[in-house]
Amino acid sequence: MFRVRSGQETTDASQAFYNCELMSENNEKKVHGVVAEYTSVDTLLSACRRVRDAGYQKTDAFTPFPVHGIDKALGIKPTVLPWIVLGAGLTGTATALVMQIWMNAIDYPYIISGKPFLSLPAFMPVAFELTVLFASFGAFFGMWALNGLPKFSNPVFTDPRFDRVTDDRFFLYIDSKDDQFDRGGVEKLLGDTETDYVQTVVDDDSSDKVPKPFFMMWGLVVGLSVIPLLVVLKMRVSHSSQPRFHVFYDMDFSPAKDAQQYSTLFRDGRAMRPDVPGTVARGEEQANLNYMTGIDMEALTAIDPSRAERLVRRLNPYFQGETEAAQELTDDEAAEADKKGSGEEPEDSSPVAGKQSASKAEASNADENAAAPEEAKPSVMETTPWLDSNPLVLNEKVLADGRKNFGIYCSVCHGMNGSGNGLVNVRAQKIISPDWIQPSSLHQETLYADKYPAGKLFSTISNGIRKMPGYAGQIKTRDRWAIVAYVRALQLSQNASIEQFKDMDDSERAKVLQEQADVKKALKEKADADAKAAKEAKEKADADAANAST
């Protein structure tokens, strides 16, 4: 007859078998310590205090849940882990500072944003990062070292009763490495506590050798990890007709556009985006519209109020939030305004209007020789009330700034002396560009101050004229007015009269006149030589074209 034993009987039987086996092998296996079992938190804490008072230090308690006060009951001292973290963090700070000082101030001095070579505020971000990194490593690996990790096996696990530590039992363990450990004394001490189970912990039967398959798997993983490194090294020293393999595309394939390129992302087709309406550059004045436009706004308001209003709405940020219709003319209105300005009549698609237009045209052609032609309507540039004087206080610094900006932006076409023969013009004449129009000489009478006001010259620099682009987006308002002042100085320098210097004696006057004559002669000879060279080059090009056609 067979009888099925209950769970408690099974546990008692396995425990009896374990005790018998332990008694027979205690003399052969290494003793690691003694463990006692308790059924409540109070009995465990009482036992911990007795073990602590007895002078034992290498102890440990195992509970199914956290027990408050057990650290004090066992006499566990504060851990040294915070000091390890502090030391690791200070090491990271020192490493970062020494590294940056050596790199940037000693080994390879390099000025970054005008800061000194040894700039501690600039070194703080890297120092902070390394401090956190080293402190994290110190906390992680210090915890492992203080807890004796990694520990792949614990002899306490060989006791079948220890399995209940995650359920409803509490265990107190005294390690044999304690200086006061005596097996008999420890068993008697624990036996006097409120426990029904005291057991010696010895080695288990498992092997302490690492299985060979583990080494084989480890070697296989290391070998496979070398393959990507070898592939990368091969790609760095070899060439391929295929594009690079991108794990992360980053900015390599972004739809970036260069300046002046076409883009389908925007309605106007421009890749370069204009400033947001109402954008004010740092240091730019917005209150004085005369200063910003070169136009006498009071006079413009008197003769053309609608245009003055459009200028105010366009340039004043206060009005930039209004609708687009209030800011500028629509395309249809602008086209109609252009036709009216040129004297043309708006088109009418009706047949009656077409017949009337045809009859008017015939009448006009019939009377063309008899009637005098009407005068052309003045352009906007002629009717605009420009400022006659420069709003800047003219001094040596203003002229120096104007000269500098004139040399940067204007001289490439107009030349350093404003004669219209800059490097771009010389190049265009050399290659005989058919579309090139020579820049105007700034010394022609139509550009003098009495015929070309300062405000009009400022507007030309800002908005451009014919093929000349506007420079309002590149040159500040003050610097554009400084260029106007320098152009006036250039004009005066090229057309100054000797009679203007009344305090000059006869010898100096004769010397100046002779130098003036020599300079004019040299300039005339150079201009004649350039014209002759250009004529010869053109004739040669025409001859080559004729020979090529035949």
Task: Please name the defining characteristics of this protein.
550 residues, mainly alpha, 2 domains, 4% strand, elongated
Describe how the helices and strands are arranged.
Layout: H1 7-25, E1 31-38, H2 41-53, E2 59-62, H3 70-74, H4 81-107, H5 120-146, E3 170-175, H6 183-191, E4 197-202, H7 212-237, H8 289-293, H9 297-303, H10 305-315, H11 324-327, H12 331-341, H13 351-366, H14 380-383, H15 396-414, H16 423-430, H17 454-463, H18 477-494, H19 506-549
Antiparallel strand pairs: 1-3, 1-4, 2-3
Helix pairs in contact: 4-5, 9-10, 15-18, 17-18
Describe it.
With 550 residues, this protein is mainly alpha-helical. The chain has two domains: 1-225, no CATH class; 286-405 and 420-474, no CATH class. The protein is built from 19 helices and four strands. It has a four-stranded antiparallel β-sheet, covered by helices on one side. α9 (297-303) packs across α10 (305-315). The termini are far apart. The model is unreliable at 1-18, 20-25, 320-331 and 341-373 (pLDDT under 50).
